[in-house]
Amino acid sequence: MNSPQTAERADAPTTAAGREWWRTAVIYQIYPRSFSDSTGDGVGDLPGITSRLDDLRDLGIDALWLSPFQRSPQKDAGYDVSDYCDVDPLFGTLADFDEMLTRAHARGIRLIVDLVPNHSSDQHVWFQEALAAAPGSLERARYMFRDGRGVEGELPPNNWESVFGGPAWTRVVEADGTAGQWYLHLFDSSQPDFDWSNEEVREEFRRVLRFWLDRGVDGFRVDVAHGLVKAEGLPDYSPDPDAGSMGGEEADVPYWGQDGVHEVYRDWHRLVAEYDGDRALCAEAWLPTPEKTALWVRPDEMHQAFNFAYLETAWEAPSLRAVIAESIAAYAAVGAPSTWVLSNHDVVRHASRLALTAENPQGHGIGPDSPGKPIPEVGLRRARAATALMLALPGSAYLYQGEELGLPEVIDIPGDARQDPTWFRTNGERYGRDGCRVPIPWAADAPAYGFSPTGAAWLPQPAEWATFARDAQAGDPGSTLSLYRSLIAVRRARGLGGGTLEWLAGFGTDAVAFRNGNVIVVGNTGSTPIPLPDGIVIAASGPLGDGELPADTTVWLTND
Ligand code: BGC
Ligand code: MG
Predict the structure, then answer these.
(1) Which of 151, 216, 294, 440 is least buried, going by the fewest C-beta atoms within 10 A?
(2) Largest distance between two CA atoms of the chain
(3) 5 pLDDT tier (thresholds 50, 70, 90)
């Protein structure tokens, strides 16, 4: 294996504090199983990604984040890892990974991998050893095993619920065949939670971090980064039914955001800092406010955290102005950049979400029987405007594969094709996240729209997706793909990621209007046009009226 020394990258030296790449980067999320399938089995894979790197370079992104491709029984699409230091055969081999990384770096694209430290798969060797071992053993102490309540231990240790629905505890059968202890799983029963008070767990994850850093990765997106440490005594807690399912409650939750979790990231910060090239840690932490989330990116902790408060904000100027101002202030207070994100593999795609008329909290999804279906044209117009707003903001922005094509959420997935554990654990009451995970279209006229050579796709693609295909959009200056390319190019050329935001008044309540360097940005979330300010238009999310910014449109102008 490479040593840190041999993994040093001449093209990516460590930079002065304050100028690290992750402060301004546009980072593109690849969901490997749905990106590009080279083998024809209907599941995307690493060679598929390698074959598309030129398309990603042409889009202009700085870095990739890959959702899990490590060994996994795929009970939660790879977020149930059975071996943290290997590639699942579904996606390829470690050699395929190395080749992908080398080729990405050769194109100036950095690569962040997903790390899932809150829980493993129940097929992980440690969990299998724990099941075979006795209560109280060292093997069980790596996970959260507890005796049940009730006379016979027949009741779960507390009332916690799984994020995916149903109880957060499962009872095991002991080696002698009797009903035994219970183990905690904040997610599916196939995802037992580690016990992070156990030093052996901490040491194992240091090894995992080094394994990928030694191979040359530029950082980690850390899954459920608010969840590792649980409150002493595991007190009962009933979630707020109105909160997003991944957390986000205002109340103190005994399994989210416990103080002790920060010590883990201080430790990782030191470890990552031993490597050259500004390697970064990004927290997936669903917390209620930018202020709380900013605790994850204090100077000695992680480098970035997803701005879910921003993602969850409706397409309404006053709320957007508030969350943008709050975010910039909260992150600046700890010396970190804000990040911005509108879509990922856990939420309804923003080309649909921004036109929803009914509440659809993250993780619940939309399906054939959901009320208030979004009107596609409205959703796409708003999505383009929202993206144009986001990419003008100072800080780092995350994109999710397919949003550059304007893909909507897929609503009409038949029940028997759905795969998200949420769908099964709630008996179909919650549709879950399959609608944003459908394999993406590359070619209008090819089988599976060019996703796989055989036409296979692990989730069915809609019949009307030919118009969204990348090749259908590439030469069209009005396409969503062309819009993304030009926004990213202008953002880079004018240094917007590293700029500062100055609010502009006088555009009315429905406008989000600001200056970033020499660029004036106005977004119109209302239903009536706004007069355009003076300046040369350098980008627009849709057609402009005569001297007017139409509804659901964002424009960038300059006077230089
Ligand atoms: C990931 C989800 C996953 C969950 C459990 C999340 O936050 O983004 O896709 O189901 O963690 O690992
Ligand atoms: Mg494949």
Answers:
(1) 151
(2) 80
(3) very low
Q: What is the pLDDT of residues 95-122, one digit of tens each?
A: 999 999 999 999 999 999 999 999 999 9
pLDDT tens for 64-92 read: 999 999 999 999 999 999 999 999 999 99
Q: Tokens 């990621």 label which residue? A: 497
284 catalytic per annotation: yes
Ligand 2 ion: nearby residues, β-carbon < 5 Å = 37, 39, 41, 43, 45
The answer to whether the beta carbons of residues 191 and 80 sit under 8 Å apart is: yes
17-120+198-480 and 125-184: identical CATH topology:
no
* Domain 1-16+500-560: assigned CATH number: 2.60.40
Residue 139 DSSP label: T
Q: Measure CA 318 to chain center.
A: 25
Of all protein residues, the one whose alpha carbon is nearest to atom 3 of ligand 1 is 79
Which residues neighbour 233 within 8 Å (Cβ) at sequence distance 6 or greater? none
Q: How far apart are CA 315 and CA 319, in angstroms?
A: 8
Dihedral pair phi/psi, residue 341, rounded to 5°: -155, 140
8-state DSSP, 519? E
Q: What is the 3-state secondary structure (H, E, C) of 324-354?
A: HHHHHHHHHCCCCCCEEECCCCCCCCHHHHC
As assigned by CATH, the class of the 125-184 domain is alpha beta
Does the structural domain 17-120+198-480 have CATH classification 3.20.20.80? yes
Q: What are the boundaries of each domain within the chain?
A: 1-16+500-560, 17-120+198-480, 125-184
Ligand 1 within 6 A of 224 CB?
yes
**Three state DSSP letters for 150-188:** CCCCCECCCCCECCCCCECEEEEECCCCCEEEEEECCCC
Do the beta carbons of residue 304 and residue 321 sit within 8 Å?
no
> Do residues 440 and 465 touch, judged by C-beta distance below 8 A?
no
Task: Give whole-number Cα distances, 310 to 285, 328, 349, 464, 526, in Å.
Answer: 13, 11, 14, 30, 18
Q: Which residue's structure tokens are 């997903």? A: 114
Q: What are phi and psi of 36, to 5 degrees?
A: -160, 125
Token duo for residue 248: 């986000």
Mutate which of 72, 187, 347, 433 for ligand 1 pocket (most atoms within 8 A of beta carbon)? 187
The strands making up 110-115's β-sheet, listed across from edge to edge, are 304-305, 280-283, 219-222, 110-115, 63-66, 26-30, 396-400, 339-341
* Residue in the structure block whose two tokens are 């383009």: 384
Give the model confidence (pLDDT) of 219-251 as tens digits.
Answer: 999 999 999 999 999 999 988 776 665 666 777
> What does the pLDDT look like over 128-186, one tens digit per residue?
999 999 999 999 999 999 999 999 999 999 999 999 989 999 999 998 999 999 999 99
CA atoms within 13 A on the CB side of 273: 13
Neighbour order of strands in the sheet with 145-146: 145-146, 179-184, 169-173
Query: Across-strand partners of 63?
Result: 27, 110
